[in-house]
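Let's see one such:

===
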Amino acid sequence: MKRHYKKDYKKLILLSCLFLLNACALQPQSQLVQVAIDKNVYVSLPQPKQLGRHINVSQLISAQWDDKKTRDLLVQLEVDEQHVVLAGFSAWGVKLLSLTYSGDKIDSYVLTGLASTLPAPENILFNVMLSIWPVEAWQAPLSRIGWTLKEKGLQRYLYDAQGKTVIRIDYQRKPYLQGKIVFRDLRTNYSISIETN
């Protein structure tokens, strides 16, 4: 009988440890306001209020890489003067990731087990902000690292410190949220399209 209690006690300890580890995995993580945009290159994000308006939209973001792999993500994007809130859902309505950017920190969450299969929430945020925040909002953060963002007609180009085009963004029409946006990272052959409802 005593051995039976010892086994039950050990199982209880093991289950308690597994429960605690799982609870830790579900906790949101806070990060600094900088986002990696190249190897050892980090840029500060513009402030939420620099968008110049409040928005609350649903978007379909379709990512493609290696010229064949694709992934769709339904996104809810809300912006006010203090926050950017982004939540990504599966086609079945399951929340896969979420992010809140308050201007001085990023809190993000990715469903356990999906971190390696989804883009990092802060990278999705960077792509969206680079696409829809005014070029003027990006001038100061990008100039600190020697990069520039220029707009020509219905296109934007992000240039690195050597003047090489690293990202091209194509718009269907202005205002940008009323048409399809195609974001291409020319270094990695990665592209996303953003369609707003």
The radius of gyration is 20 Å.
